[in-house]
Specification:
- The structure is a single chain.
- This protein is of the alpha/beta class.
- It has helices at residues 6-12, 20-42, 80-94, 114-122, 132-136, 145-151, 157-165; strands spanning 68-74, 101-107, 127-130, 172-180, 186-193.
- Strand 1 (68-74), helix 3 and strand 2 form a beta-alpha-beta unit.
- Helix 3 packs across helix 4.
Length: 199
């Protein structure tokens, strides 16, 4: 419903009721009031908040993958199945998967160990060899007098993993996981985190 302003009422009162001029003015005022109502109706309702601008999509971050160096040791001619089982158990302890392994490592005396070479070939991994002298220089948490007597170094798997990773014992994720196979032969696996080079 449209209402007349006080000024509009005063203007109409100057003309006779029912006169053509009065009716024309009243009709004009009525239309003006309707137009204002329509315009007001199009305005944003009270309390209506403007639509917020969409937030920019977060930038995707590159996944960070920890690369591992695996040190290997075993009795002569230990089956591949025993070495693989020892490796999988060690990976489970470390909370990592096969795909995280970047390099295998062992002592030069094991360069012709069938299981180690088969493992490297099967998973397309490099097999790094270290001399007993180099391995003996590495500080490890579990040196062995027995290993020293037979191999010329107090550690094979732990020291090899650390040398291959280029790090120290603080980055050993699995120190020395040893598994005895059904045939009585042992495999030993150590896992170290590879330190990425600082750019």
């Amino acid at each position: 419903m449209a209402y007349l302003t006080r000024g509009q009422v005063d203007t109409l009162s100057q003309f006779s009721v029912g006169s053509d001029v009065a009716e024309a003015l009243f009709f004009g005022y009525f239309l003006l009031g309707q137009q204002k109502k329509v315009t007001a109706g199009r305005a944003r309702p009270a309390g209506c908040r403007p639509r917020p601008e969409p937030s920019p999509a977060p930038q995707a971050q590159e996944p960070t993958t920890t690369q591992l160096a695996v040190g290997l040791g075993c009795d002569r001619n230990t089956p591949l199945a025993t070495v693989e089982q020892a490796l999988q158990e060690a990976l489970q302890q470390a909370g990592h998967a096969q795909d995280d392994i970047a390099i295998l490592a062992t002592i030069t005396a094991k360069a012709d160990e069938p299981a180690f070479n088969a493992l490297a070939e099967k998973h397309q991994l490099p097999l790094k060899l270290f001399s007993a002298e180099d391995l003996a220089q590495v500080e490890v948490p579990n040196p062995s007098a027995t290993v020293q007597r037979f191999m010329g170094t107090p550690s094979v798997s732990e020291a090899a993993a650390l040398l291959a990773a280029g790090t120290t014992a603080q980055d050993l994720l699995v120190e020395k996981h040893r598994l005895r196979g059904p045939d009585g032969k042992h495999a030993t696996v150590s896992i170290a985190r590879i330190q990425k080079e600082t750019p």
